[in-house]
Specification:
Layout: H1 13-16, H2 19-34, H3 37-51, H4 60-63, E1 64-65, E2 68-69, H5 81-93, E3 98-102, H6 105-123, H7 125-135, H8 152-156, H9 162-177, H10 180-194, E4 196-203, E5 209-214, E6 219-221, E7 235-243, H11 244-250, H12 255-266, H13 268-271, E8 282-285, E9 288-310, H14 313-318, E10 324-329, H15 331-336, H16 338-343, E11 353-368, E12 372-378, E13 397-401, H17 412-436, E14 439-444, H18 455-464, H19 474-477, E15 489-494, H20 500-518, H21 534-547, H22 549-576, H23 582-586, H24 588-596, E16 605-609, H25 612-631, H26 637-645, H27 649-741
Antiparallel strand pairs: 1-2, 3-16, 4-5, 4-13, 6-7, 7-9, 8-9, 9-10, 9-11, 11-12, 14-15
Helix pairs in contact: 3-17, 5-10, 9-22, 17-20, 25-26, 25-27, 26-27
Length: 745
C-alpha cells in the first residue's frame, strides 16, 4: 500500500482525456517507489552481501583493540556467493524452449479440420494414390498418408495452422535477438537474492521490441498477498535511470521539454538533490545528467453505449428477423447529453433505451526526472482476445515473488547472510592467530644489569663468550630480593593459541550447517568423497535439488508468462510493423503468407515452456542410456554427439530412437549379408569337398590298378624265380644222379 490512495477509475471518458488523470497515477507510482523502504533496504543488504560489501564502521568493534587498529584486516569471503552462482548456473543450463500454440476457437477448429482430413485420407488412401498415378493430381500436396493412427508417421504429424507455425519460428528468433536466456538468468539471480524479480517487454511506436530485466527495487506494483505473479495489481511500472541522450532518442519530446532538460544539465545545483527541482529524480554522474524515468501502465474500462429502439410496422415488414434497431453512441456524446439519453424519449416521442457495455482499455504515462510528463495516452495496438474481445491480453510488465507468507518473504541470500557474518569473524580470528605466531621470543629483566652496563653488551658477551657479568649490587636495586641470573633472560613461546584448532573446527561446522539449511551441498557442487558410491551420490544430489525445487518451479511460471508476452507483442509487431524482417527469417513461402494476410496479429496464442527439472532428470537418464548403447555398439559416435547437442528432451529422445532404429537396420543387413556369405562359403566348401572326394576316388582306383599290376609283376617275378630255382634244382639233381651212376675209378 502506498502513502496515497489509488485514483478512482469510475470517471467519465472526458476526465480520462485530461492530463490530471495521468498525473494522479504518476504521483501514485512515485508514492509506491518511496513506500516500504524497509523492504528495499533488505534488498540492498542482500545485494551488498552477495558482493561482500559491509556497512562502513560495522566491523570497527572487531578490528580495533583499546582504540588501536589491529594488524590483521577484516575480510569478507562471500561464503554464499558460490551457492547462488551454482543455482544460477543450473538455471542457465535448463532449456529455454517455448512451444507456441493457437488457442482461440477458430484456430482450434482449423486444426481439427486438418486432423479430420487426415483421418479421411487414411480411409481413402488407395483411391488417392490411384488419382495421383492416373490423373497426376496430388490431393495431399506431397504429405505422406499414414496407414493408421498408430502409424509413427501419424504420431509425428503436428496439426498446426500456418499462423502457429510462423509464430513458433518468430518466437525462437526473438529468444536469440533479445538475449532472453541471459536476461532470465539475471532475473533468477535477483530472485535468489531478494525473492523478487521483475521484467519488462517493451514495444514502442515503431514496433521495435526490447526486453529489460528490472531491479526489483525499481518496480512499481501493488503487492497483494497470494498474488505471486502480480496479476491483481491495478498498476504496473518501473523506474529506469537514463542519460539525456538516451531520453532524447527514446521519447519524442516537445521543444519545451527538451529545453527543460538542457537547462537542468547546465544548472545542476538547481535541479539535482532532494531539494532541487528534480525532487531527487535527477543526479549527476561523471558530469552527465541522469534522470529517473518512471513508466507506468494500468487498465481501465471504457463504456460502450448502444441506443435500442423498437421497429415500426413498416420496418418489421421489410425485416422480421429482429424486433429492435440498434445505433452506436459515443461516450463523449452520451456524457454531454446524459439527461436526454437517460430520459429515454426522442424528439418524436418514441421511447428508446440505452444499453451499456464495458471494455477493458490500457493506458500509459511516463515521467522524466520528476518534472516532465510525456506519452500520456492509450497504449498502441492493444492485443485483445479473439473469443473474448472485451479483455486485453498483452502487457509490458511481469512480476514474481517467491515464498511470501503473511506478507514477508525470506530469500536464500538472507538465510546465508548470518552464516557469512559468523564465518568472516571466525576467519578473522584465525588470521589474528597467524599474525601473532612468531615462534620463540627472548625477554630480559633489566634489574640484573649493573649501573653502567648496557643490555647490548651483555647480549654480545652471552652470545660470543658465554659469560654473564652480574653485579650483586643489583640486590639493593631489587629491594633486598636476591636475583637469580637464570631469571634475567627467559624465552616465551608466541605460537598459535590454544583455541586455534577449535576455530578451524567451528569454521568447518559453519560450512556444513549452511549446506544442510540451503540444500546446496558439496555433492551438488561436484565435490564427492572418495568413499561415496555412485548410488549414494545420486541420492544426495536428488535430495539437494528437491530443497530448491520450489524456487525453480515458481520461476518457471514467471518465464512462461514473459514468453507469452514476447509472443503476443511479436505477433503485433511482425503482423503490422516488421514485415520487412520476415523473408530472411521465415523463408519465401511463409513470408508471402505473412504479406497477404495479417492473421497472426489477430490470433490468441498459448505458450508452454519445458519443465527444467524434469528436463534435467530425463536428460541425464537419456545420456546414461546413450553411454550404454555406445558401449554396446548400438549407436554410432556421431549419433551420441547429436544427442549431446540436442536442446530439448524430445530432440534427444528422437535422435536416440532414430539411431537405435538405424543401427538395428544396419545390424540386420549386416547379419543378412553375413548369413549369405556363410551360405556361399558353405556351398563352396561342399563343392570343394565333392571335388576332393572325386579326386580321391580316382586316385584310389588308380592305386588299386597299380597295386594289381604290381602284384602281378611281383607274382610273375616270384613265379619266374620259382621256375629258375626249380630248373636249377633239377639240374643239380641230374648232376648228382650222374655222379652216383658212374662206376668208381
Amino acid at each position: 500500500m502506498a502513502s496515497t490512495l489509488y485514483p478512482r477509475e469510475d470517471v467519465s471518458q472526458a476526465e480520462k482525456n485530461k492530463p490530471e488523470y495521468f498525473k494522479a497515477r504518476l504521483d501514485y507510482a512515485e508514492s509506491l517507489l518511496k513506500y516500504n523502504s524497509s523492504l528495499k533496504d533488505r534488498m540492498s543488504s542482500s545485494f551488498d552481501g552477495y558482493n561482500g560489501i559491509k556497512t562502513p564502521g560495522s566491523t570497527m568493534w572487531l578490528e580495533k583493540t583499546y582504540g588501536e587498529q589491529n594488524k590483521s584486516r577484516y575480510r569478507t569471503y562471500r561464503l554464499g556467493r558460490t551457492k547462488i552462482d551454482l543455482l544460477c548456473g543450473e538455471q542457465l543450463k535448463r532449456p529455454l524452449q517455448a512451444t507456441v500454440t493457437t488457442i482461440n476457437s477458430q484456430a482450434m477448429t482449423d486444426k481439427m479440420l486438418q486432423y479430420d482430413f487426415m483421418i479421411g485420407a487414411m480411409a481413402a488412401k488407395k483411391e488417392l494414390i490411384d488419382i495421383k498415378q492416373k490423373a497426376g493430381v496430388d490431393v495431399m500436396e506431397g504429405a505422406q498418408i499414414p496407414d493408421s493412427e498408430n502409424d509413427p508417421a501419424f504420431k509425428q504429424m503436428s496439426f498446426k495452422d500456418k499462423c502457429e507455425d510462423i509464430m513458433q519460428i518468430i518466437g525462437e528468433n526473438q529468444i536469440k535477438d533479445l538475449g532472453l536466456k541471459g536476461k532470465f538468468n539475471e532475473a533468477f539471480k535477483n530472485c535468489a537474492l531478494t525473492n523478487y524479480c521483475y521484467f519488462k517487454v517493451e514495444r514502442n511506436e515503431t514496433g521495435d521490441i526490447e526486453a529489460h530485466n528490472i531491479d526489483p527495487r525499481d518496480r512499481v506494483i501493488e503487492d497483494i498477498e497470494g498474488d505471486d505473479y502480480g496479476e491483481k495489481s491495478p498498476i504496473h511500472g518501473c523506474r529506469q535511470t537514463m542519460f539525456v541522450h538516451q531520453i532524447l532518442k527514446r521519447y519524442n519530446l516537445s521543444k519545451e521539454d527538451r529545453d527543460i532538460l538542457n537547462n537542468a544539465r547546465a544548472n545542476p545545483t538547481d535541479y539535482a538533490g532532494v531539494n532541487g527541482k528534480g525532487r531527487g529524480y535527477m543526479t549527476y554522474e561523471n558530469g552527465q545528467l541522469s534522470c529517473d524515468v518512471i513508466h507506468i501502465e494500468w487498465k481501465s474500462v471504457t463504456p460502450e453505449y448502444v441506443i435500442v429502439k423498437p421497429k415500426t410496422a413498416s420496418q418489421l415488414a421489410l425485416d422480421s428477423t429482429d424486433n429492435e434497431l440498434t445505433f452506436p453512441l459515443t461516450p463523449e456524446k452520451y456524457e454531454s447529453n446524459k439527461e436526454y439519453y437517460d430520459k429515454g424519449i426522442d424528439i418524436n416521442g418514441k421511447q428508446f433505451t440505452v444499453e451499456t457495455k464495458f471494455r477493458e482499455e490500457e493506458y500509459e504515462a511516463t515521467r522524466i526526472g520528476g518534472i516532465i510528463n510525456t506519452d500520456m495516452r492509450r497504449t498502441f495496438f492493444q492485443k485483445r482476445g479473439v473469443d473474448n474481445p472485451a479483455y486485453i491480453m498483452s502487457s509490458s510488465y511481469y512480476s514474481y515473488v517467491h515464498g511470501r507468507t503473511s506478507g514477508i518473504s525470506i530469500s536464500l541470500q538472507q538465510i546465508i547472510e548470518n552464516f557469512e557474518n559468523i564465518y568472516d569473524i571466525a576467519m578473522y580470528k584465525i588470521l589474528q592467530d597467524f599474525a601473532r605466531m612468531k615462534g620463540k621470543s627472548l625477554t630480559v629483566d633489566r634489574g640484573g644489569l649493573g649501573k653502567n652496563q648496557k643490555l647490548e653488551e651483555q647480549l654480545h658477551r652471552l652470545v660470543n663468550d658465554g659469560i654473564i657479568d652480574w653485579d650483586s649490587s643489583a640486590v639493593s636495586n631489587q629491594g633486598g630480593r636476591y636475583l637469580d641470573p637464570a631469571n634475567m633472560f627467559k624465552t616465551v613461546d608466541l605460537g598459535l593459541s590454544e583455541s586455534f584448532q577449535q576455530l578451524l573446527a567451528f569454521r568447518d561446522s559453519i560450512r556444513h550447517e549452511l549446506d544442510n539449511i540451503t540444500g546446496v551441498n558439496e555433492n551438488r557442487m561436484g565435490i564427492t568423497a572418495a568413499s561415496s558410491t555412485a548410488t549414494a551420490q545420486q541420492s544426495d544430489i536428488a535430495n539437494s535439488r528437491t530443497i530448491t525445487e520450489s524456487l525453480f518451479y515458481g520461476f518457471s511460471g514467471f518465464v512462461q508468462r514473459v514468453m507469452l508476452g514476447v509472443i503476443q507483442s511479436s505477433a503485433i509487431s511482425w503482423a503490422f510493423y516488421k514485415l520487412e524482417k520476415g523473408e530472411q527469417i521465415l523463408g519465401s513461402e511463409k513470408f508471402r503468407f505473412l504479406q497477404v494476410t495479417q492473421d497472426i496479429g489477430f490470433r490468441d496464442y498459448g505458450v508452454t515452456v519445458e519443465d527444467g527439472s524434469r528436463y534435467m532428470e530425463v536428460s541425464q537418464k537419456i545420456e546414461a542410456m546413450m553411454q550404454v548403447s555406445l558401449n554396446a555398439k548400438e549407436i554410432r559416435p556421431m549419433d551420441a554427439l547429436n544427442v549431446l547437442l540436442a536442446e530439448t528432451v524430445a530432440q534427444k529422445k528422437a535422435f536416440l530412437e532414430s539411431s537405435w532404429v538405424e543401427m538395428k537396420k544396419i545390424m540386420q543387413e549386416s547379419e543378412q549379408a553375413n548369413n549369405q556369405m556363410q551360405q556361399q562359403i558353405a556351398e563352396q566348401q561342399n563343392a570343394t569337398n565333392l571335388q576332393i572326394a572325386k579326386e580321391d576316388r580316382e586316385d584310389a582306383q588308380q592305386n588299386q590298378k597299380d597295386n594289381i599290376i604290381l602284384q602281378g609283376q611281383v607274382q610273375m617275378e616270384v613265379d619266374n624265380n620259382k621256375a629258375k630255382n626249380s630248373l636249377y634244382e633239377t639240374n643239380l639233381k641230374t648232376q648228382a644222379d650222374i655222379i652216383k651212376t658212374q662206376p668208381p675209378v
